[in-house]
Amino acid sequence: MKFNTLEDKIAHARSLENPPEPLREDFFSLLKKGIGSDKTYLTYRDSEQNRTEVSYRQFYECVINTARFYQSRGLEAGDKVATISHNHWHTVVQYFAAWFCGLVVVPVNLGEDDNRIAYILKNAEVKLALVRDEYSDRIQKIIKKENLLSELEVIVCDDSVESFSKKNGELKEVQVGTESEALIVFTSGTTGNPKGVVLTQRNLLEDARTISQWHNIDGQTKMMCILPIHHVNGTVVTMITPFFVGGSTVLNQKFSPGHFFQIIEEEQVHVVSVVPTLLQYLTSYYEGKEVPENNQFRHIICGAGPLTVKVAQNFEEKFDIPIIHGYGLSETTCYSCFIPADQPKEEHKKWMRDFGYPSIGIPVPANEMDIQDEQGNSVPEGERGEIVIRGVNVMKGYFNNREANESAFKNGWFRSGDEGFIKKDEKGNPYYFITGRLKELIIRGGINLAPLEIDEVINKAPGVKAGIAVGFENDWYGEEVGAYVELKEGAEQNEAVILDYCREHLPFLKSPKVVVFGEELPVTSTGKYQRLKVAHLFEEWSNVQFRE
């Protein structure tokens, strides 16, 4: 299909020939449902495990008062509000109040460096920043350095809701459509400026509906959030989804492996969303320890980062908890596909273990997926290409970045930048697999190598707790393969043992040639490996020719 304009390409990528039924609810109608309900919507647990319960009625009142506050500061529909905070129930209130007023939330990841935070505030054209008091000094310095005071109002928020609310005064009713912009999430790339992903209210609600249907989440279900809510996974899966169906959620300030199962039992949680890194933490923490019983717990939702067969198998065997593996990006709101949640155990194992990579599942009703070559042609089953997505959960586009939009929507689909392939089951259902980031592919002597394939072997080597393949510059082959490794407690730094193991299980061209030992793998706040961050550690081998 040919498209005349970029706008035509984006419109095609955000539509379906057979779209799901129209949404019956919007954020306004969902909020109104809670006016008189004393049912708990949110339980907040801080880093000391202190609990705060917030009912639907209390949440509604806080949202309305915060909306009044926004309007008292002169904010109008379409204006941008930044939230600068750790996980806190106040931040959830600030999100929903913004959407009530038709404002756009710009969550700021405090893990970013000062220059990137400054870029986000400027690029997103933020009018008001809500800053937790413990981060105020840092943000004030950034604003002063970048001379942003004339463009940006800063509100310092403490532990009282009153610091960002207004109980009395006029509240204007704003007509907010589901195509109104709701969220600008800046991608956490390893190089260059981050890109602002623009999501509409419809994007958020469509993905919440999809997730609730796939995982059988209803008004009786309790979820738990341990991921940062500055990212769509934390926000959409475990905050918006339970709200959408009238369920409840437990919001943790931070993840603690020692408290994870304790909280699940105490709060009677049914479903949790995690990233693969946290599965590794849990498996490691409970090595040699008794596994707690949580009879009401159903399954783990896992995505937003590379999951290996080894990590998945070790976790499922250790805890007897199924991992419902999925895949998506900020650009597609959150999840675009999942392993079926109701599969028989052996069928589940097959798709998680038998193909070299755990399957990311089959497409959800909100979108369709394909594997395509660079020209936008579908590739045959089993052949590798780029994962592309089209549907009602696809973003509106990158904010103020036409060049990035031209690249992302090149062929009328959203191009993920991820390499993958398809295998069909006996019914013809397409199961998708991801083999790695196209831009992370190691190109050795003109041959493309998928890092995740090498990761699988590195992680099985003796003494290795966790490891990743890293492509480093090499005069002889363009790039060569290295391994960055975190050892198990008590294991010796024996490079030869690891290299020998890898060479037993991989052809020479794919095998790591050197090992660099470190204390922990570099990951983003959402658990994605940052291979490029450690590539410089291999510089001394740039002029070495490695031969069999």
Question: What is the general shape?
Answer: globular
Largest sheet: 9 strands, mixed
Strand order of the largest sheet: 2-1-10-9-11-12-13-14-15
Number of spatially distinct domains: 3
Give the DSSP E fraction (strand runs of 2 or more residues).
15-25%
Oligomer state of the chains in this structure: single chain
The appropriate CATH architecture of the largest domain is: 3-Layer(aba) Sandwich
Give the end-to-end Cα distance, rounded to a whole number of Å: 47 Å
- Rg calc: 23 Å
Structural class: alpha/beta
Word description of this protein:
This protein has 3 domains: 27-176, 3-Layer(aba) Sandwich (Rossmann fold); 201-398 and 416-438, Rossmann fold, CATH 3.40.50.12780; 441-541, ANL, C-terminal domain (GMP Synthetase, Chain A, domain 3). 29% of the residues lie in helices and 25% in strands. The protein has helices at 6-13, 27-33, 56-72, 89-100, 114-123, 136-146, 201-214, 232-245, 257-267, 276-285, 309-319, 345-353, 402-408, 451-458, 495-505, and strands spanning 40-45, 51-55, 80-84, 104-108, 126-132, 153-157, 181-186, 196-200, 222-225, 248-252, 271-274, 299-302, 323-327, 337-338, 362-363, 367-372, 385-391, 397-398, 414-424, 430-437, 442-444, 447-449, 464-474, 478-487, 514-517. Strands 2-1-10-9-11-12-13-14-15 form a 9-stranded mixed sheet, with helices on both faces. Strands 4-3-5-6 form a 4-stranded parallel sheet, sandwiched between helices. The chain is globular and about 75 Å long. The termini are far apart. The mean pLDDT is 92.
